[in-house]
C-alpha cells in the first residue's frame, strides 16, 4: 500500500456495484437488470427549471442549507405531515451526502449502529470511516423488520438505529406496527433513529409510513434522485431536531458546501410533478418480474423500491450464479455486496418491460440448468 494512504481506507473495499457497472460498459447490448436508478427521463418541466436557473445566472454557491424557496416548500410539506415543534430541514448533496453528514455528526469511535442485513452498501463503509461499530441484524429469509431482534441487539454502546424502508436491495417494506415498535424503542432508550426514505414514493401495496410519525426525534433522509430520475443532480434533504440539523450544516459547510444551485431550482419544480403514472408503471414491472420468476426462485415479494432479491438456485451460491448470468449477457448484482451471506442476488426492475421479459427468460433458463 502507498505510504500516504490513510489506514481508514483499508477497512472497506470499493463498491461491488461499480465493478458490475464497469463490466456492463464492456459488454455489447447486455440485458441490464443491475442499475438502481429509474429508466425514465427527468421530467421536462424539471429540466426546464434547471436550464432557466443556469441561464438566469443562478450558478453560484447557494446558502449551505439550500435555496430559500426549496427549503420553504420542503418545510411546509414536512410541517403539514408531522406537526412537530422541533423539526427543521436542509438541502444536502444527495441522500448519500445526508447519510455521511448524519454519521459524522452523531457517531463517535466505538459507537454501535444497528441495521438490517441485507443493507445498502454505503452503511458499513460510512460507519467505518467514522470509527463506528456495525451491528447488522440478520433478516433472512423474509427480510422483515423484527423489533424484538432490534431490541435484543441494543447495548449501552448503541448510538443509532438505521432503518431503510422500502429497502435496498430487497424492496421489502416494514409495516406500520414494526416501525412504531422500533421508533418507540429508540425514544425509550434515547437512541438516534435514522430513516433512509429515498424510496418512499415507490410504495405499491399500501400507504408509506415513516417512523417519524411515532418518534419526533427521528432524523429523516430523502431526496429527488430515485423519484424523479435525478440521480446525477445530487439534491437530497434531511429533516430532524434543530440542534442535530445545525451540526450537520456545520459539517456540510466544510465538506460539500452546498447542493448544486441549478439542480435545487429543478428540485423545487419537481415538487409539483405528479409521479403517479411512473409509480403505476413500476407496480406493473414488479408484478411482471415476480410472476415470471415465481415458479423457479425463492424471494419475498417487494412492497416498494424497484428491486427483487431472490435466492440463487442450486448450491453454488449467489456470486457463482451471477457470474454465469453475466457470461450469458445478463447483468445482475451479487447479494454478498449487500450482506454477510452469499446466497442471493439483486435484480433491478427499473428497466423496460422488454428487458425484464428477456431477463426473466434467461434467469429461468439458468435456474433449470442449476
TrEMBL record:
Keyword Cell inner membrane: no
Higher taxonomy: Bacteria, Pseudomonadati, Planctomycetota, Planctomycetia, Pirellulales
Molecular function terms from GO: pyridoxal phosphate binding; transaminase activity
InterPro entries noted in UniProt: Aminotransferase_I/II_large, AspAT/PAT-like, NHTrfase_class1_PyrdxlP-BS, PyrdxlP-dep_Trfase, PyrdxlP-dep_Trfase_major
Domain Aminotransferase class I/classII large: start-end pairs: 29-358
Xref: CDD domains: AAT_like
Cofactor requirements of the protein: pyridoxal 5'-phosphate
Protein name as it appears in the record: Aminotransferase
Amino acid at each position: 500500500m502507498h505510504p500516504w494512504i490513510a489506514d481508514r481506507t483499508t477497512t472497506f473495499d470499493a463498491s461491488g456495484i461499480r465493478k458490475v457497472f464497469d463490466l456492463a460498459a464492456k459488454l455489447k447490448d447486455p440485458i441490464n437488470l443491475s442499475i438502481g436508478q429509474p429508466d425514465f427521463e427527468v421530467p421536462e418541466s424539471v429540466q426546464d427549471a434547471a436550464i432557466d436557473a443556469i441561464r438566469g445566472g443562478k450558478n453560484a454557491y447557494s446558502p449551505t442549507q439550500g435555496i430559500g424557496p426549496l427549503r420553504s416548500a420542503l418545510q411546509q410539506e414536512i410541517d403539514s405531515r408531522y406537526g412537530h415543534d422541533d423539526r427543521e430541514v436542509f438541502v444536502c448533496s444527495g441522500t448519500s451526502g445526508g447519510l455521511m453528514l448524519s454519521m459524522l455528526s452523531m457517531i463517535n469511535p466505538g459507537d454501535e449502529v444497528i441495521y438490517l442485513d441485507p443493507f445498502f452498501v454505503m452503511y458499513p463503509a460510512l460507519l467505518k470511516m467514522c470509527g463506528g461499530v456495525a451491528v447488522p441484524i440478520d433478516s433472512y429469509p423474509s427480510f422483515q423488520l423484527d423489533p424484538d431482534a432490534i431490541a435484543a441487539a441494543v447495548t449501552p454502546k448503541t448510538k443509532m438505529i438505521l432503518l431503510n424502508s422500502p429497502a435496498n436491495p430487497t424492496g421489502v417494506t416494514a409495516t406500520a406496527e414494526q416501525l412504531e415498535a422500533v421508533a418507540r424503542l429508540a425514544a425509550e432508550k434515547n437512541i438516534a433513529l435514522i430513516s433512509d426514505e429515498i424510496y418512499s414514493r415507490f410504495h405499491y401495496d399500501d400507504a408509506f409510513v415513516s417512523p417519524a410519525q411515532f418518534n419526533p426525534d427521528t432524523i429523516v433522509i430523502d431526496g429527488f434522485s430515485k423519484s424523479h430520475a435525478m440521480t446525477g443532480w445530487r439534491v437530497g434533504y434531511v429533516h430532524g431536531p434543530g440542534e442535530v440539523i445545525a451540526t450537520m450544516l456545520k459539517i456540510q459547510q466544510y465538506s460539500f458546501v452546498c447542493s448544486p444551485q441549478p439542480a435545487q431550482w429543478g428540485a423545487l419544480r419537481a415538487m409539483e410533478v405528479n409521479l403517479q403514472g411512473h409509480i403505476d408503471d413500476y407496480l406493473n414491472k414488479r408484478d411482471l418480474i415476480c410472476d415470471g420468476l415465481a415458479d423457479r426462485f425463492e424471494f419475498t415479494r417487494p412492497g416498494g423500491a424497484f428491486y427483487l432479491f431472490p435466492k440463487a438456485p442450486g448450491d453454488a451460491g449467489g456470486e457463482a450464479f451471477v457470474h454465469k448470468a453475466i457470461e450469458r449477457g445478463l447483468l445482475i448484482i451479487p447479494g454478498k455486496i449487500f450482506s454477510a451471506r452469499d446466497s442471493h442476488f439483486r435484480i433491478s426492475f427499473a428497466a423496460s418491460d422488454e428487458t425484464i421479459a428477456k431477463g426473466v427468460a434467461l434467469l429461468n433458463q439458468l435456474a433449470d440448468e442449476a
